Amino acid sequence: MSEIKVIPRYSQDRGHADHDWLKTFHSFSFAMYQDFNHEKYSSLRVINEDRVAARTGFGTHSHREFEIFSYVVEGELEHKDSMGNIEVLKRGDLQLTSAGTGISHSEKAHGNKPVHFLQIWSLPSTSRLQPKYFTRHFSDDEKRDTWVRVVANVNAEGVQKDLREGSKQGEGPAPVQSPLTMYATLLRQGQSLGQMMKGSKGYVHVVMRSGYNEGAANGATVRVAGQTLREGDGAYLQVPLAGEVLVENIGDRIAEVILFDLE
């Protein structure tokens, strides 16, 4: 069986912007950062690692035909949208907006502390859908040394579809209209964790938890299919049939890792 091919996407090579109120890294082309070599990967279109200063944020703006989800790492994120949803998201929360035919929303740091979150966009398989909003909560204990499925295709096994919409009413993964699955883990030092992939592609990202760093990443260090990655780093994965992605924590602290299984 052929091995998984890993193409690193190092943190210092990502797009980067410092707007004082917002410090952000872009894994894919976004806003003023444009790189034809990193436009998207399968249905995955945006991974922004955002740090928003206290009492600031993204004012009301509009989207359509994207699946937009926020994975809160630290602090509190206040969400408001044109569907009437108002919610404060905390660590462990995941919020998913299926923009469909169009929504407007704002995302701001809530309270007196900054918020650190991953802003992720994917491309839906079906256009002109009714906009919907979902939130889920996944505790640190749930994610410790295991992969937790936090987002999955609406037709995947175990996904609750429209039955559990809004305000963390549901359990299990948030339903996305894209052909992807998103996993998250908190991997302790010396531990390893495998995940069988269903798609032919994958993407992995190591969350930059130790602090904002414009240069080569410090902090947690993992090995993914033999490739060393540090905080802020990611990698494109090309996966053979029935391939398994193995992540090993080879550093001196807990690593928070996000893995996407893509068609």
Characterize the structure shown.
By secondary structure, the protein is mostly beta strands. The protein has a single domain, classed as Jelly Rolls. Helix content is 2%, strand content 49%. The protein has one helix at residues 140-143; strands at residues 5-9, 15-18, 22-26, 44-52, 57-63, 67-74, 77-81, 86-89, 93-98, 103-109, 115-122, 132-137, 148-153, 174-176, 180-187, 192-196, 201-206, 221-224, 227-230, 234-238, 244-249, 255-262. The strands form four sheets. A seven-stranded mixed β-sheet has the order 1-20-17-22-15-13-14. Strands 2-3-4-11-6-9-12 form a seven-stranded antiparallel β-sheet, with no helix packed on it. Strand 2 and strand 3 form a beta hairpin. The protein is globular, with a radius of gyration of 17 Å. The relative contact order is 0.20. The mean pLDDT is 93. Belongs to the pirin family. Fe cation binds at residues 61, 63, 105, 107. Keywords: Iron, Metal-binding.
Based on the model shown, name its key terms.
single chain; 263 residues; mainly beta; Jelly Rolls; 7-stranded antiparallel sheet; 1 helix; 2% helix; 49% strand; iron; Pirin_N_dom; Pirin; RmlC-like_jellyroll
Summarize it:
With about 260 residues, this protein is an all-beta fold.
Helix content: under 10%
* SS-derived structural category: mainly beta
Say what the CATH topology is: Jelly Rolls
Provide the succession of SSEs. Answer: EEEEEEEEEEEEHEEEEEEEEEE
Radius of gyration, whole Å: 17 Å
Tally the helices: 1
Could you describe the largest sheet, including whether it forms a barrel? 7 strands, mixed
**Which segments are poorly predicted (pLDDT under 50) over 5 or more consecutive residues?**
none
In the CATH hierarchy, the architecture is: Sandwich
Give the overall shape.
Answer: globular
In order across it, which strands form the biggest sheet? 1-20-17-22-15-13-14
Strand content: over 45%
| Average residue-wise pLDDT | 93
Q: What's the CATH C level?
A: Mainly Beta
Distance between the termini: 19 Å
DSSP strand count: 22
CATH superfamily: Jelly Rolls
Domain unit count: 1
